[in-house]
Write a structure and sequence with these properties.
The complex is a heterodimer of chains A (519) and B (294). Chain A is mainly α and 519 residues long. Helix content of chain A is 68%, strand content 1%. A ten-stranded mixed beta sheet of chain B has the order 3-2-1-4-5-10-9-6-7-8, with helices on both faces. Classes of the chains: A mainly alpha (519), B alpha/beta (294).
Chain lengths: 519, 294
């Protein structure tokens, strides 16, 4: 407030105006579940992650999906603790900086931004595949679906999608709640229908390569090797990525204090049941062999629904295309928000150019940060499309690694930040110490295992450059690039790196308010 | 008396503020700078992020503080950040809460040669406001354009029934101590009809008689002139008139409007596109006065 303001003491009317816009239509239980499912985007996630996971663990996908939820849940508890203590748009960046200081904080922010940029390019890539598949279904001309394999057409279409998503984010255009409900409901119904029809084919005996369901599929200990187990796990962390948002909605959900917890639980139950149902259905239908539609076929693993929708649903396959397209579109839009906001926070605290902290005066979005994220994601996709034979698969695997990196750092930041109050209550012990510590350790192990394993040229899709696995090169390039940019920034903007803008601290210290909303 | 200024940290926001300052200089109103942010309760694809909302609010308060600092010291100005479904909703709620008598907004970018081009927000306001809406043309907020109001022009339709508008114009004229000009616009979009060779003359005569009627009802203490302008279209008629950069134009709301609400009529909308000066659209049946009538 300015000095001028003191000449105008606030009247009742002025006070009434400055109230926050909360109240009227705040998110309810169903709304929170819809947002949660929309952020996870199960149709998109499963088509991208099922193939690579089968490649790692074979028929044990259901087991890995179940186990993969555990580290996610443990870390999400820590995430929630930090979010309620220091709500800040920089999330992992801000929290890790507060706990461990500027260098580690910077890298955590970098990890988050890199992960979201990689997923943006993967999302747009999947959307391109399904866009041409849908066109070919509409015009009943299979050759249209082939267009997506032409790298030039593919890249141009992908850039067009990115441009659309950028504009929507930049201008902060929102769909109505009703449309969101319809899209999420449609997505879930189509996925269930897809699974049921797959089972019907198995029952009728005309499945592609029927593999009888076995309890063994649900046994994580039956996975052949630890490295396969770890690789599968890091992929299954990706499929739950985005779920944590439902846990942090406490601020704006209406109803009782238990609404966010119930919403998060309901969301994850729906998602887990759907994943298990669909993965069992598809393995049951197509087996894990390397035949034309087998889930072990490397040709189809980057995007399994793309290949399986036709044989399973016949003319109704277009429903799957629409579901995946709408799911990717929603996810593309919600995913755009996080790198932009983290970049904004980094600009604001002086860890990056202050340009990143500019808010668009009319649309009230982090405009500059949004455009930069979009350009980087587009360039990343274009380069990847030309150097990788299996861009979708490789990006998903890299993504798993990056999520482990920044989520792991966030979990440890939670443990360290609350170090003085671990034992002050059983609740603190569980949510601020035990859960994030165990979750962080699991993610840490996964991260290092994936790095070591991925150096092998046969890892994942088998893409490699000069005999070194492409996923390893990608992951290392991203992390080393982050360190280099960080060192450059530390020269350009020493204030942040000398702890002057966002001080390192501990729960309850005097600096906390700097990064937290007043209660 | 309070005026609500729809402020954003853009050149159209600064246009609005500059016009509001000029009007307030004339009438002594105090200014309420209102910046409307999206309601957090609206449906979004991502959950609201309290950290970002806080950052946004601080940024908005910073913008408003700068704007308030730019207001000349002899005028009162108060900043407000409000939350609403849409910018026009937010401004109308502010008008109601603050009991303001006028809303000032900037026309959106993109108008040709600095004229008006209405954005969807301005349009929404012009079709629902309960108080007069003043529109600042593009780039009118640039330095050197802060001359006091030099004249009030009031556009009278060719049909009778603009009493409120006239009353408003008289009030504004008295308050500012400036002359009043009444204009009547005649558009004849067809080529001269051989059967009615005198159509133009008759239309102009009719317009003149409406003006005459209006003039005869004016109080004697006002310096008033009147003009009839004609052209193929309303737009052409507008351009034939001489415009003083420092004047403002008052036009009435459409007869389609509900009582006490604005509804931008087609003539007004056409005028908007051509006018190089600020324009105030007055709602039907409004008891509005830019100055105090009574």
């Amino acid at each position: 407030m300015t000095a001028r303001d003191t000449t105008n003491p606030p009247t009742a009317a002025t006070a009434a105006l400055s109230k926050k816009g909360l109240g009227a239509g705040t998110v309810g239980l169903v709304g929170a579940i819809v947002i949660g499912i929309s952020c996870i985007a199960p149709a998109y996630t499963l088509t991208g992650a099922l193939g690579p996971t089968v490649a790692e663990v074979g028929t044990h996908v259901p087991a890995i999906f179940l186990v993969g939820f555990i580290p996610m849940l443990l870390v999400a508890f820590g995430y929630r603790e930090l979010n309620s203590r220091m709500p800040d748009s920089g999330t992992s960046f801000t929290w890790a900086t507060r706990a461990f200081g500027p260098w580690i904080g910077w890298m955590a922010g970098w990890g988050l931004i890199a992960a979201t940029i990689v997923v943006l390019s993967n999302l747009a890539g999947i959307a391109v595949d399904f866009f041409y598949l849908m066109l070919s279904q509409i015009f009943q001309n299979p050759s249209i679906a082939e267009l997506t394999t032409n790298p030039f057409i593919n890249v141009i279409t992908c850039l067009a999608f990115m441009l659309g998503a950028t504009l929507i984010s930049y201008r902060d255009m929102q769909t109505t709640q009703k449309l969101q409900y319809v899209l999420v409901g449609f997505q879930l119904l189509v996925m269930v229908f897809f699974g049921i029809v797959a089972f019907i084919h198995v029952g009728a005996g005309d499945a592609f390569d029927a593999l009888p369901i076995s309890l063994d599929w649900f046994n994580p200990f039956a996975v052949g090797s630890f490295s396969a187990f770890a690789a599968g796990l890091s992929l299954s962390i990706f499929i739950f990525w985005g779920w944590d948002v439902t846990l942090t909605m406490s601020e704006e959900t209406k109803g009782s204090a238990s609404t966010p917890g119930r919403a998060a639980t309901a969301t994850v139950v729906i998602i887990v049941v759907l994943y298990l149902f669909l993965s069992v259905a598809l393995i049951n239908y197509a087996g894990t062999g390397t035949g034309e539609f087998g889930l072990g076929n490397e040709e189809i693993q980057g995007n399994v629904f793309f290949s399986l929708a036709g044989p399973i649903l016949g003319p109704l396959a277009i429903l799957v295309s629409i579901a995946v397209l709408s799911s990717s579109a929603a996810s593309l839009q919600s995913t755009f928000v996080s790198p932009a906001r983290t970049l904004l926070a980094m600009g604001h605290y002086g860890a990056l150019s202050p340009k990143f902290s500019k808010v668009h005066p009319k649309f009230f979005t982090p405009g500059y940060a949004t455009i930069v994220s979009s350009i980087v994601a587009s360039v990343f996709y274009t380069v990847m499309r030309f150097i990788s034979e299996d861009v979708l698969w490789d990006t998903i695997t890299t993504l798993g690694m990056l999520i482990c990196f920044y989520y792991g750092l966030t979990a440890f930041a939670c443990v360290w930040y609350f170090r003085k109050q671990w034992f002050s209550s059983a609740r603190n012990f569980f949510f601020q110490f035990f859960s994030p510590l165990v979750g962080g350790l699991i993610l840490g192990v996964l991260f290092f295992t994936t790095i070591i394993e991925s150096a092998n040229p046969d890892y994942g899709s088998g893409s490699n450059i000069g005999g070194v696995g492409l996923v390893f090169i990608l992951g290392m390039t991203i992390i080393v690039l982050g360190i280099v940019i960080m060192l450059v920034q530390s020269r350009l903007r020493p204030d942040f790196f000398k702890n002057r803008t966002l001080a390192r601290g501990i729960a309850g210290d005097s600096n906390e308010a700097e990064a937290a909303l007043p209660e | 008396m309070r005026y609500v200024v729809g402020y954003t940290d853009t050149s159209s926001g600064r246009d609005a503020l500059a016009l509001a300052v000029r009007l307030a200089r004339t009438t002594g109103a105090r200014l309420d700078l209102v910046l409307v942010l999206a309601n957090e309760a609206r449906p979004t694809l991502v959950p609201a992020d309290p950290g970002y909302e806080k950052f946004l609010r601080e940024t908005a308060e910073g913008w408003l503080a700068q704007a308030v600092a730019a207001v000349p010291a002899d005028l009162q100005a108060t900043p407000h950040v409000v939350y609403a479904e849409s910018p026009s909703d937010g401004l109308l709620e502010a008008v109601e809460t603050l009991k303001a008598e006028l809303v000032v907004i900037g026309a959106a970018r993109g108008g040709i040669l600095g004229r008006f081009s209405l954005g969807s927000d301005a349009n929404a306001l012009l079709h629902s406001a309960t108080v007069p809406v003043a529109l600042a043309p593009d780039r009118s907020g640039e330095p050197g354009t802060d001359a006091p109001i030099s004249r009030v022009t009031c556009a009278i339709g060719t049909r009778p029934g603009a009493d409120e508008l006239l009353a408003a114009a008289i009030g504004a004229t008295r308050r500012g101590g400036v002359p009043l000009r009444l204009v009547s616009l005649v558009a004849l979009d067809r080529p001269a009809d051989p059967a009615h060779p005198d159509a133009v003359a008759r239309a102009e005569a009719h317009a003149a008689s409406v003006l005459e009627e209006a003039l005869s009802h004016l109080p004697a203490d006002i310096a008033v002139t009147s003009e009839v302008a004609s052209g193929h279209r309303i737009e052409d008629a507008v351009t034939t008139l001489e415009w003083d950069p420092a004047e403002i134009v008052l036009i009435g709301s459409s007869r389609l409007a509900q009582p006490k609400h604005l509804f931008l009529g087609s003539t007004a909308a056409k005028m908007l596109r051509e006018l190089p000066v600020p324009m105030v659209v007055v709602p039907r049946d409004s008891s509005f006065t830019i100055g105090d009538l009574s």
